[in-house]
Amino acid sequence: MELTTGIGEIDELIGGLQVGDNVVWRVLRPVEQAIIRSFVTSGTSAGLVYITFTEPAAEVLARYRSDWRNRDVLLLDCFPERSGAKRPAGRGRHRIVMVEHPRDPARVVEALKNAEGTFGPGTAYLFDNLTTMQDLWGPEAALDLFLEHCPRLYELQTVAYWFLRKEAHDASFLARLQRTTQVVLDTIPSNGHHQLRVAKAAGRTDAVGRGVDFELGESGIAILRTDTQEPVRTGESLKAKRLAKGISQAEVARRIGVTPSALSQAEAGLRGLSAQTLASAYSVLEPEQTATPLPYTVARRRARRSRKLAAGLRAEDVLEDVSRMSVHILEFAAGSSGRRPPFVTKQKEVVVVMSGVLELQIGAAREVLQAGDAIVLRDEPVTSWSSPGSVATRVLWCILPPAERPA
User: Fold this and answer.
1) Are residues 382 and 261 in the same domain?
2) pLDDT tens-digit map of 198-220
3) Is pLDDT at 302 greater than 60 in this prediction?
4) Burial annotation 10-33 (CB, 10 A radius, 16+ → b, else e)
5) Are 343 and 382 part of one and the same domain?
6) Are 192 and 308 in the same domain?
7) Are both 122 and 160 inside the same structural domain?
């Protein structure tokens, strides 16, 4: 799945985009349009949902149609200053949906919900201006829409880009936004051009404070300089230590919970690792010097992979601990069933239904669990299961560590 800001140097600067990221760009007006152009004309074939408040969707489509020849695009037209003229509905791979009464935030929320899942995983959402949303609805309603949509992205396997003019918002609005979002990028005028700085990058704290200089061009923004020396030095150090230990990239990546590709890019200085992940890497490569274990275990969502357990049943392995405890997110397809337990174990299990309905046969007993229900499995294993509803069932399935025997 390709996730990109449309500007390779910025992808490297923030340590890569992750599924579920909300990227807030705090910009000045001329910079805003140049960054949007770089993003929407990046050449990726992933679907795009473009929510426009600052101009009619027909004008957006006319500007970018030739760049979107190989891209599916849905434009939600929330432009409030409409004439009586009928707007074109787009054609082929490009559609325009007119959001009636965009001054009512509930109408925009409804349109967003209707757009969910239109193009599948990897889709990008672009909200062209949070400042205009604030002007239309007031700061609380604009922030409420952000806070409602923000957590949905990971479930939808998407990312979103939000633009705002920082001088138009008070400190409280900006602080609440920054606490909630995953990535914040600031643009600042600097000596006749512009500078971009990373103000926040959740899980990638080594990226915070790094920046690039750029200038505006007809095709978007052009990067002038990238602050990459520190990642290069760190990457060279990691690679040297790994080679000295004779450990493969794949093995180190497995131990610290990242993909081999992410570790390869870190060693090449193309991206950073979070402080916690970097500490884990050094503990693997220098165990005699970092023998003190951390008092907690972190499992990063970007390292998770989905796998098939049975027909109609997929699992994401969230965490596996040295104590032999493991946590998994299971998705049971609507109408699916099976006659084997998801996991064969003699350890206690805790099952929490997050959505949908799950029916379990446990020995001679049968239990039907709905969203919010939980069950502890102690002595009897699950002998069969079914997801009888019309929608998929999502479950948090935890295998607890074995009880310690008394000395």
Assistant:
1) no
2) 888 887 766 787 888 888 887 88
3) no
4) bbbbbbbbbbbbbbbbbbeeebbb
5) yes
6) no
7) yes
Q: Enter the tokens of residue 282.
A: 């050094």
Burial of 142 (0-12, 13-18, 19+ CB in 10 A): buried
Contact 327, 371 (CB under 8 A): no
Q: Which residues pair with 215 in a beta bridge?
A: 222
Q: Which residue has the tokens 């007119």?
A: 98
Alpha-carbon distances of 303 from 47, 84, 254, 262, 333, rounded to whole Å: 23, 51, 9, 9, 23
Contact 177, 140 (CB under 8 A): no
- pTM: predicted TM-score of the whole model, two decimal places: 0.61
Residue-wise pLDDT tens digits, 52-103: 999 999 999 999 999 998 899 999 999 998 655 455 555 678 999 999 999 9
Which amino acid, residue 112?
L
Contact 43, 301 (CB under 8 A): no
Give me the amino acid identity at 326: S
Report residue 50: phi and psi, to 5°.
Answer: -110, 115
138 with 15, same domain?
Answer: yes
Parent domain of 122: 8-224
Domain CATH code at residue 345 = 2.60.120.10
Count of domains observed in the chain = 3
